[in-house]
Amino acid sequence: MKRNGDSIDTIKLTLTHYKHSNPAEPVNIFIYQAQPVCPVNLLLAYLNLRGTSPGPLFLLARSLFNFKKIFY
Questions:
Q1: Cα 65 to Cα 56: distance, rounded to the nearest angstrom
Q2: Rounded to 5°, angle at Cα 45 from 47 and 11
Q3: What is the pLDDT of residue 63?
Q4: Which of 4, 28, 36, 64 sits a CA distance of 20 to 30 A from 72?
Q5: How do the domains of the chain map onto residue ranges?
Q6: Contact 44/51 with Cβ under 8 angstroms?
Q7: Are 13 and 29 a contacting pair, CB within 8 Å?
Q8: With 60 as the cut, is the pLDDT of residue 64 above it?
Q9: Residues of the chain by 3-state class (helix, strand, coil), percent to 5
Q10: Each residue's pLDDT tens digit, 12-57
């Protein structure tokens, strides 16, 4: 996260495991603050609900994160 004074204006999302990924070459996605809908503020609000524990970004109820059973 990059701070601009007291607020956060950029979030760096690093993907290390995804379909067809090479773990030696993670991909960084930068999410910048914008208007009228701000992805940074929305992601921070989601993380406030999800918590900051390590693991997948998106979790199912009760912190289950085996999406393969759902999507395959």
A1: 7
A2: 65
A3: 52
A4: 28
A5: 2-71
A6: no
A7: yes
A8: no
A9: 25, 25, 50
A10: 888 887 777 777 788 898 988 777 778 888 888 888 888 877 777 7
Q: Which residue has the higher pLDDT, 57 or 4?
A: 57
Distance CA 4, CA 12 (A): 14
Phi, psi of 42, rounded to the nearest 5 degrees = -65, -45
Burial of 33 (0-12, 13-18, 19+ CB in 10 A): middle
Split at pLDDT 50, 70, 90, the class of 58 is confident
DSSP β-ladder status, 7-15 and 27-32: antiparallel
Residue 2 DSSP SS3: strand
State both tokens at 44: 């921070």
